[in-house]
Amino acid sequence: MSVNQLSDSAQNYLKIIYGLNEWSNEPVTASVIATKAGMKLSTVSGALSKLRQQGLLDHAPYGAVTLTALGWDYAMTMVRRHRLIETFLVQMLGYRWDQVHDEAENLEHAVSDFMVQRIDNLLEHPTRDPHGDPIPTAEGRISIPPAINLSDAADGSKVIVERIADDDSQLLQYFSDQGIRVGVELSVSPAEDFSETINVRVAGKKTTLSLGSRAINAVWVSAGK
């Protein structure tokens, strides 16, 4: 069965389940999926039951949700479509990085595998999308860059932005205005005790920014040079 024979809803669930595990080791549960999808838990539980019957995932009652080999293959197909479309919209159509997520969410269900491959060829086979997320190959291989969440960066360290979560357009606009993008170096400095913030300075700038949890949780970094 081709991924195109799955419903848009099933395609979305598989992509969400993969995405929740991509940058986290926390168990993926029905309630976590419901929160991410913005849907009722009862609705999600029913959908997961159908996907399990189709052999696309394993889900013990009240336990974690995991993709089967077939579910993984379909999830990779959808992730590849989404990230290549985002990259195409930015590089070829002049979209800003905060404008592409919702567009890609709609387009990824309509494109054919042939079109996706043509986009990949046109873009000369990019390995990362505009937000730093890795793009799977046509064979379903994916390489996650070594990175930690900004919250785990040591005080006084210099780090390179590797990935910024793409599901908050307002936050992406803020990062863009402050010069925080993939590949940019940040200097991390201590914040006030108990403030739940992190102070960073973008390389080449004098201003220090105080980032709260919403911003911190969206940024993944690697050790700077």
Approximately how much helix is present in the residues? 40-55%
Structural class: alpha+beta
DSSP strand tally: 8
**Low-confidence spans: pLDDT under 50, at least 5 residues?**
none
Radius of gyration: 19 Å
Number of helices: 8
Largest sheet: 6 strands, antiparallel
Between the first and last Cα atoms, what is the distance in angstroms? 47 Å
Q: What is the H/E string?
A: HHHEEHHHEEHEEEHE
| Overall outline | globular
Mean pLDDT metric: 93
Question: Into which percentage range does the β-strand content fall?
Answer: 15-25%
Write out the strand line-up for the largest beta sheet, numbering strands in chain order: 3-8-4-5-6-7
What are its keywords?
8 strands; alpha+beta; six-stranded antiparallel beta sheet; 225 residues; single chain; globular; two-stranded antiparallel ribbon; 41% helix
Can you put this structure into words, describing what you see?
This protein is an alpha+beta fold. The chain contains eight helices and eight strands. It has helices at residues 8-22, 30-37, 41-53, 69-93, 100-107, 113-122, 169-178, 213-216, and strands spanning 57-59, 65-67, 148-149, 158-164, 185-189, 198-202, 208-211, 219-223. The strands form two sheets. The chain has a six-stranded antiparallel β-sheet. Strand 1 (57-59) and strand 2 form a beta hairpin. Helix 4 (69-93) crosses helix 5 (100-107). The radius of gyration is 19 Å and the shape is globular. The termini are far apart.
